[in-house]
UniProtKB/TrEMBL annotation:
This is CPBP family intramembrane metalloprotease. The keyword Transmembrane applies. One of its GO terms (biological process) is CAAX-box protein maturation. The chain crosses the membrane at residues 40-61, 67-85, 106-128, 148-166, 178-194, 200-216, 223-242, 258-277. InterPro entries: CAAX_protease, Rce1/LyrA-like_dom. Residues 146-234 form the CAAX prenyl protease 2/Lysostaphin resistance protein A-like domain. The lineage of its organism: Bacteria, Pseudomonadati, Bacteroidota, Cytophagia, Cytophagales. Pfam families: Rce1-like. It comes from Hymenobacter gummosus. Keywords: Hydrolase, Membrane, Metalloprotease, Protease, Transmembrane, Transmembrane helix. GO terms for molecular function: endopeptidase activity; metallopeptidase activity.
Length: 298
């Protein structure tokens, strides 16, 4: 009999009769807790060739090209990493839902596009923590000198690759192994650590929680990419229009009353939007057992 998880079921399934009888059990879905943290290790290792190659190229590339070439190399390496991880997982890889029942009509995607700036406004107070950016701000400032490159990487490649990795590869297996709540939480933590930047990691963690919950509720990776794209596009557009350096922070005392009002309205609308989506959708059913036979061929 198949075990099905819901959002309230966050524990490991009870041992089956076969397990109690000592019969061999199927391998867990990919990834386990240990394997999910190893994803970050593989990512760091994959960046070593990028760093080495960038150092060599910088000897003869024009200075204005150096940041762009390094970021393009990094993006290509991320593509290779995701493909390699999925191939390495083999039949243990949980299927990913690229499109679900709730993104077939126009109103749910439109709601998410409108909800994303509200979520971003809700997270604005995190800048008051004055967390360090570890030099990432300088890289972003250099990228902003070539807007086309920023739009290509931050708004095109990043949403697709990062959602494919964290919500399409890591999250489904964690949910099937450990339940929804610990899986969404761990995937959000990994998503935040992946950015290697405390100033970026704080809001990224909460966005990761929302995206993980969204994937479980809407059963669609496509809507996660849409939200990720909208968030990044708004951030890039705001930086380009304001012409302020990336990572600029202000204290709550320096924040204008109008900005505080926007933050408050954003929090209210975010809560209402999440409540509406919660009532509109239902969590996906995730099997606790590995598929066999023709299921592995699907």
């Amino acid at each position: 009999m198949e075990t099905v998880y819901s959002e309230s079921n966050s524990a490991m399934p009870e041992p089956s009769a076969a397990a109690l009888a000592g019969e061999p059990q199927p391998s867990p879905w990919y990834p386990t807790y240990k394997e999910s943290w190893a994803v970050l290790g593989w990512y760091l290792l994959s960046m070593l060739p990028v760093v080495v190659g960038a150092v060599g190229l910088m000897q003869w590339l024009p200075k204005s090209w150096q940041t762009g070439v390094m970021l393009l190399l990094g993006t290509l390496m991320q593509v290779a990493l995701v493909l390699w991880l999925r191939r390495r997982a083999g039949p243990r890889l949980a299927p990913v839902a690229w499109s679900g029942p709730y993104d077939q009509t126009w109103h749910v995607p439109l709601l998410l596009v409108l909800l994303t700036p509200c979520l971003a406004a809700s997270l604005a107070p995190l800048t008051w923590l004055h967390l360090p950016h570890w030099g990432v701000d300088k890289t972003f400032d250099k990228m902003l000198q070539t807007p086309a490159l920023v739009l290509l990487l931050a708004c095109g490649a990043a949403p697709v690759l990062e959602e494919w990795l964290f919500r399409g590869t890591v999250l489904p297996g964690l949910v099937r192994n450990y339940g929804v709540r610990p899986a969404v939480l761990l995937s959000a933590v990994l998503f935040a650590v992946f950015h290697m930047n405390p100033g970026q990691a704080a809001p990224t963690f909460f966005i990761g929680l929302f995206l993980g919950w969204l994937y479980v509720r809407l059963q669609s990776l496509r809507v996660c990419v849409l939200v990720h794209f909208t968030n990044n596009f708004m951030a890039v557009l705001a930086l380009l229009l304001s012409k302020k350096p990336y990572g600029g922070m202000e204290s709550v005392a320096q924040t204008e009353p109008a900005t505080l009002a926007v933050i408050g309205v954003g929090m209210v609308l975010t809560a209402l939007g999440i409540r509406y989506l919660h009532g509109l959708t239902r969590p996906a059913a995730f099997s606790a057992q590995l598929p066999t036979g023709r299921d592995l061929m699907a």
